[in-house]
Amino acid sequence: MLNKVTDSAIDAMSNINDGATILIGGFGLAGQPAQLIDALIARNAKNLTIVSNNAGNGEAGLALLLKSGCVRKIICSFPRQNDSHIFDDLYRAGKIELEVVPQGTLAARMQAGGGGLGAIYTPTAYGTLLAEGKETRVIDGKNYVLEYPIKADFALIKAFKGDRWGNLIYRKAARNFGPIMAAASNHTIAQVSEVVELGTLDPEHIITPGIFVHEVVCIQGEAS
Amino acid sequence: MSDYKPRSVDEIAQCVAQDIEEGMYVNLGIGQPTRVADFLPKDKDIFLHSENGVLGMGPAPDEGQEDGDLINAGKQYITLLKGGSYFHHGDSFAMIRGGHIDLCVLGAFEVAENGDIANWFLGRPNDIPAVGGAMDLAVGAKQVYVIMDHVSKNGEPKIVKTLKFPITGERCVNRIYTDLAVIDVTEQGLVVREMVAGLTLEQLQTKTGPKLIDKTQ
Which residue of B has its CA nearest to A52? Predict the structure, then answer.
């Protein structure tokens, strides 16, 4: 009987090694898999490349991962925020590499990665600093920039409910990057607030089918 | 010297809100544009999109009703209207890039007379670049309106011939709402649709880089 549910976030990190590329879900704190990030910090793998919309808030979750010194590079759309002082200090000290990607391009590159496309042409960022040195093309009279897929070794995401096959549903705007990241990684670990019996999730409402999910970690008593 | 009073932030937001029609799908950028939501006519169905994955965004929740999973692109707590929906970032930016958003209202550092906009990065030595959805919104929305002060804190025009700050998107702004005037970006040039009472076109011109065309009558 296949069961993707594991009890321990720590155990779920056991295959993450130095140099891994990891997608981390969330928009700010909504959808950020805080307990999985804590376990990743405990894993202490070095030289990680992290892909996430932001670069951490305050002194929690992703910000603490950056503080731990495990991250070599971050790919994100909006690193600078009121409470991103951990990232800001690392960046200004030259201790972390930053690749800024427009938010929609970040999503599209991961969708390309998850969907097996070789590249995409997007109109976003044409003529800007973020398209410098990139191939461009005119298609039907409009300017596009060539962008390559993002594909990762791991994804850490947060969902609301999951089952033992890895099917997931999300909660409100915490869905954000979860379904896209799940598809774009070789090994997706989802933390959920509740594990339900197989067949409980309405197939019409499953947002991420279990094929994209490899481990489901139930975080007990997680208030959503 | 005639006497005039610049519009407040709320008055500018009200001007924009008046121009939004029933049935429009609208994205309000972070900061000042968010204020437009407060002045939308209650008797019209207008759909607010937030790029983190919400359509049918409602007002801020009552105190004690905040939900960390229900925020807007500015990471403020929001509510969802009846009929609203949630979706992932792929769908959200397909709505934007795919031309499904009728109108986006953005803040800006500068707008050029050809509609180029700079609003993501000042590019000073110690600045950290952060773009979010600004470039997607600039190129993707069917119409882009900008809300900004007419001049900078140093009194320099923010409507310019060519941008001095790094560009966000080329030729994408359709209309500019400032504390002094409403100006359309057209093939013929910058057309002044409306000005605050007491202001003359000559006065407005001294605060604006490119040549203005008067169509206030």
Answer: B132
Q: What integer pLDDT is reported at residue A224 of this predicted model?
A: 46
Residue B1 has pLDDT above 80, yes or no: no
pLDDT digits (tens, 9 = 90+) for A117-164: 999 999 999 999 999 999 999 999 999 999 999 999 999 999 999 999
Q: Cα torsion at A51, A57, A59, A65 (round to 10°)?
A: 0
Nearest partner of B140 among B35, B22, B57, B25, judged by Cα: B25
Instruction: Give B 97-116 residues with CB within 8 A of chain A.
Output: 97
Q: Identify the H or E element spanning A161.
A: strand A161-162
- β-strands B189-195, B110-112: how paired? unpaired
pTM here is 0.97
Give the tens place of pLDDT for each residue, A50-73.
999 999 999 999 999 999 999 999
**Which residues, numbered 98 to 157 in chain A, qualify as contacts with chain B under a Cβ-Cβ cut-off of 8 Å?**
98, 100-108, 111, 122-130, 143
State the DSSP string of A43-102: HT--SEEEE-SBS--TTSTHHHHHHTT-EEEEEESB---TT-HHHHHHHHTT-SEEEE--
Please, what's the largest Cα pairwise distance for chain A?
A: 55
CA distances from B144 to A147, A167, B26, B102 (A): 25, 39, 10, 9
Cα–Cα distance list, A158 to A105, A130, B111 (Å): 21, 29, 39
Domains present along chain B, CATH in parentheses = 9-214 (3.40.1080.10)
Domain A5-103+150-218 has CATH 3.30.460.10: no
pLDDT for the residue numbered A151: 98
In this prediction the ipTM stands at 0.96
The minimal CB distance from B89 to the residues A126, A129, A176 is found for A176
Q: Kindly report, residue by residue over B128-147, the tens digit of the pLDDT.
A: 999 999 999 999 999 999 99
Tokens of B209: 């880089």
8 Å CB contact between B67 and B106: no
Does the annotation mark B51 as catalytic?
A: yes
**In which element (H, E) is residue B106 found?**
strand B103-107
Residue B2 confidence (pLDDT) above 90? no
Enumerate the domain spans of chain A. 5-103+150-218
User: Both tokens of residue B39?
Assistant: 């002045």
Give the phi and the psi of residue A44 in degrees, each rounded to 5. 60, 30
